[in-house]
């Protein structure tokens, strides 16, 4: 069990740093346009901006699944990266299918990845909610007479 924690916790920290980088990257266009006072007037441009933030956050989650998959492959748990990535995705999304099970030695890494995944999806949701709330606030503030 201790070995699983010694291996899994640094990967969780790496994923946290990766998520922070993806948050910073996804918010760059948002900060440039919305906080800069240039809210897109067109609903299509606003949708594109929000979609870009969402896609970058999803990419960040996928990269983290790939990191866990590489760890599982590196530990010799799976013969192919595709299988390791599939198992990682099931863990990260907290689906828990159980169709592929790791050996008893490394089995605790699954729940660690699930805890990591649910936290990171929460961060992605928070970023999207904050972005949308701020855009709505700025939109109404702009339309209010001084």
Automatic annotation (TrEMBL):
SUPFAM superfamilies: Voltage-gated potassium channels (SSF81324). InterPro entries: K_chnl_dom. Residues 66-133 form the Potassium channel domain. It comes from the Bacteria. This is Kef-type K+ transport systems. The lineage of its organism: Bacteria, Pseudomonadati, Pseudomonadota, Gammaproteobacteria, Pseudomonadales.
